[in-house]
Design goal:
By secondary structure, the chain is an alpha/beta fold. The chain has 12 helices and 8 strands.
Length: about 300
């Protein structure tokens, strides 16, 4: 029998109404939304369920997304399902930390509320992120290195999809070179800053100070960090990796490939949207992939119980 992984999506998959049915139908899920609201000093239910513009602003998006993810995680755990390994993309790594037992839900919500604020505050004017489609990774890396100004890789999402990040002028110059090199498309992302670039180092340093007040528990379920695409085996490494994660490349494709190499053949995406499930089809379409974002999706998991 193969292994099962829980995986959690990052910022960008949010939408108004995410997690509402969990909140209304499952008591432990409602508790998680309320806990997130208390930890973050916000009305999380209103933020997630009522039409508003804040849901797409980083400092609010992050805690809203995580509240929905952790609520859904708790519903799955109530069914008795536990993963063999867990990972999450960027913000989603905090969902993985909760699933792994490394941080309490309350601490995770408090830290992510601050993370969103620090990342929003650190955003310089003129930052950009662009998804580059259909071009070899090595070519993209070389063009970023050769482009004047600050432009680096933010996300290794899947074969044929890399996200670059950095100063707007440098990103635009890189896009021209990438297009000339044969990229199928270069799509500017609707984000409020150049996340996962060295321009966010300051936000990571502030986050490190916040993490000083957080207790890190023993790792109950193995999890893989974005920065290294490797298992975190020493809990002393958790905080430094989370500090670096804000300004480092997210090695998602490498993370998934590591899990597959270790015998994982079933992946459950927990949270809004189907972004990671889509990446999985590009990484290895032989894997079994489930997506949980509605209460009815829990029925799909019965075969795994």
């Amino acid at each position: 029998m193969g292994k099962t992984a829980f995986m959690f999506p990052g910022q960008g998959a949010q939408y108004v109404g995410m997690g509402k049915d969990f909140y209304e139908q499952i008591p432990v899920c409602r508790e998680m939304f309320e806990l997130a609201g208390k930890a973050g000093g916000l009305d999380i239910a209103a933020l997630c369920f009522e039409e508003n513009e804040q849901i797409n602003i980083t400092e609010y998006t992050q805690i809203a997304m995580l509240a929905a993810e952790v609520a859904m995680l708790k519903a799955i755990e109530e069914k008795g399902l536990k993963p063999d390994v867990t990972a999450g993309l960027s913000l989603g790594e905090y969902g993985a930390l909760t699933a792994s037992g490394v941080m309490s839900a309350e601490d995770v919500f408090r830290v992510v509320r601050k993370r969103g604020i620090y990342m929003q505050e650190a955003v310089p004017k003129g930052g950009a992120m662009v998804a580059v489609l259909g071009l070899d990774t090595a070519v993209i890396e070389k063009i970023c290195e050769e482009t004047e100004g600050m432009v680096t890789i933010a996300n290794y999402n899947c074969p044929g999809q890399i996200v670059i990040t950095g100063e707007e002028d440098a990103a635009q110059a890189a896009v021209e070179k990438l297009t000339a090199a044969g990229a199928k498309r270069c799509v500017p992302l609707k984000v409020s800053g150049p996340f996962h670039s060295p321009l966010l180092v300051g936000a990571g340093e502030k986050l490190a100070k916040e993490l000083e007040h957080v207790e890190i528990h023993d790792i109950q379920i193995p999890y893989i960090a974005n920065v290294t695409a490797d298992y975190v085996t020493d809990k002393a490494d958790v905080k430094p990796l989370l500090e670096k994660q804000v300004s480092s490349s997210v090695k998602w494709q490498q993370t998934v490939e590591r899990m597959i190499a270790d015998g994982v053949d079933t992946f459950i995406e927990i949270g809004p949207g189907k972004t990671l499930s889509g990446f999985m089809r590009k990484i290895n379409k032989e894997m079994k992939v489930y997506n949980v974002e509605k209460v009815e999706d829990l029925e799909k998991l019965k075969a795994l119980e």
